[in-house]
Amino acid sequence: MSTSTAVTAIFPTFEQVCQGFAGQIGMLREMAPKPTLADDVRVERAIDTLIAETNAGEAVWLESCIHCGQCTTACHFFQATGEAKYAPMRKMELYRRIYQREIGPFRWWFKLITSPVKLKDLEALQELVYDSCSECGRCTMVCPMGIDTASLVHHLRSALVAAELVPPELAALTAEQKHRGTIFGASSDALLKIVDTIRDHYGVAIPLDKPSAEVMVLSSAVDLVANGNGLLATARIMNHLGVDWTICSDGFESANFGLLSGDMALWRQQSASITAAAQRIGAKTLVIAECGHAYPALRWNPMVAGGALPFEMVYMSEYLGRQAKAGRLNLTPIEGKITYHDPCKTGRRGGAFEQPRAVLQAMNADYVELPSGREYNWCCGGGAGIFLLERATRLRDESFKIKINQVNATGATTVVVSCASCRLNFEAGRIKNHWDKQVASLVELVADHLIDPPAPAATASQPGVPA
Amino acid sequence: MTLLEFARGPAIHWALIILVAGTIWRLLGVLALTRGADLSRPRDAFGNYKGYRTVFSRAWPSGEFNVATRYQTVVAYVFHFATLIVVVGITAHIEFIQSLTGTSWPALPNAAGVAVGIVALVSLFALIMRRVTKPSIYCSNRGDYITWVLVAAPLITGLMAFAHLGPRYETMLAIHILSVALLFIWFPFSKLMHSIWFVFSRAQSGLTYAHKGVQI
């Protein structure tokens, strides 16, 4: 079951994937559900959502801001545009007003001196919390009060879900995942089809729906409907490791549009289908595909009692890093100077810093850190669903220039990412700017550098790799 | 009752009562709210406690933001320390604190007190100049300006009283004390409460990130 390197590639290149996605995203806008509720009901639901989601932690953050302006130095959207409305602190002004009027200790006073929230206030908020905030958390790193604006923005997104004010692209995908369980039509049939294609064409087996397995691996819609190379690479690595692994057709989707849009019910529902499948097959390890927000959606899901689950959840880069450190990945050296972009959701807001670097080290990479790297890394500008929003194109394009400068400063020829969303955004930025860098996915890079044993070795029955 | 007697008597006493009661009310009103539960498993079993370091570490911006934040940070530090020294270091203030608490300590020489007061005032002007000239960075609201005026007023009136400028001394002193009373009354309702919130806010974020194994 080792792969032949002489097989003709049938999956599109990532540049083609990226261009294909642009067309698909265009169709989403037509498919978005229209608001159904009366204006006052939508406002009321938004306010009720914020009341329900505001705890002492959020209140302390809302109370603490002194308008010192330092967050503006950290925000890629503000730095790229210099426009006042994109200042991180401004994103919570409306939240603060609702908090002060409804929950705060002086609410009787603020009800007298502030005006009630109207639908147009919420409509204006949409651009601030979807288009111009990737919830990257960089502003928290500079705030003298340590305010976590990204968390507050997430609550505001929940409020806009309640007010039926999710941007059309995200609304369409949220509705699709909620009602049909798919994203971009990536159903279990699509999974079956690509598994067959990979087996028939590349001779790489993907153990689908095994009744029990040590390691359960997730995939994502990006791989299923566009970038077959992602799933192929994953399968080659898992087979190389010889672990007892499977993909479950009733719980394979990493992407979670509940988290991205702010729909808490969908977030919970989507996570539950995956954790249920992992428990059913007795998995010890759940490997989350290279899909940045899927990491907080599952591993850091506050609604999932992780400690009580019989398995652990790790991101693909974490899993690969562990295998690399344990010497289980037999890899050829990598050419050229390499740098690594920490996706916000797995880096600053996830803590998976060391493992992807260990993988690159295992390939003897001529590795160089980004200036302002690790916890201080600049967001690529496409996170938290922004890559999908046509309206945010200018913001994405302008902020990506920061990324270009940051990578150029390293002198690296290749920038490695470990997040489909970052990768799509990097690729789009690379094409638009005729940027002379290569953008690589960690998992595909590893697969390309595997030294497979000469004979078919992966029998898929060896004991699983301990955590 | 003269203006000075009013200022030294009911005005400052009621202002202190509002300061203390209002601060306690606002603190309790927030801290009594529900606690959000994060059921996810922390990266390290006891790693969350490392989050409390942020309360102290955030006292100075990280090297990453040194250049961008230098002006604001340095001037703000000068203002805070100079103001604190003036508040607790001048003979008249120590006498007032002694009348309330019974404790006292040696005062700064008058010239030093005046010098530090001027430093505090100049730094306060340096801060407002930047706020006014860079509106997109500060997103200032009415509260920001009211707070600035109410903080500047005691510094200005105090220096004037000391230097015997303006109206006769007793009137100037009364105006100074009344300006302090206004500041006390404003404190619990304004961003001045950041002098207390910063501990909770930094701790909250420190814990949130430490849960994921990230030191912020």
Main traits of this protein?
heterodimer, A: 467 residues, Fumarate Reductase Iron-sulfur Protein, Chain B, domain 2, Rossmann fold, 3 domains, 4-stranded parallel β-sheet, 8 strands, globular, disordered C terminus, B: 216 residues, mainly alpha, Fumarate Reductase Cytochrome B subunit
Structural class of chain B: mainly alpha
N-to-C span of chain A: 25 Å
Give the second-level CATH assignment, the architecture of chain B. Up-down Bundle
The oligomerization state is heterodimer
Our measurement of the CA-to-CA distance between the termini of chain B, rounded to an integer number of angstroms, reads 55 Å
Q: How many domains of chain B, as an integer?
A: 1
The CATH topology label of the largest domain in chain A is: Glutathione S-transferase Yfyf (Class Pi), Chain A, domain 2
Total number of strands of chain B: 0
Mean pLDDT of chain A: 94
Q: Indicate the CATH topology of chain B.
A: Fumarate Reductase Cytochrome B subunit
Estimated radius of gyration of chain B: 21 Å
* Overall structural domain count of chain A: 3
Strand content of chain A: 5-15%
Helix proportion of chain A:
40-55%
Biggest interface goes to:
A-B, 58 and 59 residues
CATH architecture of the largest domain in chain A: Up-down Bundle
Radius of gyration of chain A: 22 Å
CATH domain class name of the largest domain in chain A: Mainly Alpha
Q: Low-confidence runs of chain A (pLDDT<50, min 5 residues)?
A: 457-467
Account of the protein in words:
The complex is a heterodimer of chains A (467) and B (216). Chain A is mainly α. Chain A folds into three domains: 14-27 and 178-325, Glutathione S-transferase Yfyf (Class Pi), Chain A, domain 2 (Up-down Bundle); 39-164, Fumarate Reductase Iron-sulfur Protein, Chain B, domain 2; 337-448, Rossmann fold (3-Layer(aba) Sandwich), CATH 3.40.50. Chain A has 22 helices and eight strands. In chain A, β3 (285-288), α17 and β4 form a beta-alpha-beta unit. In chain A, α1 crosses α21, α6 crosses α7 and α18 (316-325) crosses α19 (354-362). The longest helix of chain A is centred in the first third of the chain and has 18 residues, at 14-31. Chain A is globular, with a radius of gyration of 22 Å. Chain A starts with 13 loop residues before the first helix and ends in a 19-residue tail after the last helix. Chain B has 216 residues and is an all-alpha fold. Chain B has a single domain, classed as Up-down Bundle (Fumarate Reductase Cytochrome B subunit), CATH 1.20.950. In chain B, 71% of the residues lie in helices and 0% in strands. In chain B, α1 (3-31) packs parallel to α8 (169-186). Chain B is globular and about 65 Å long. The mean pLDDT of chain B is 95.
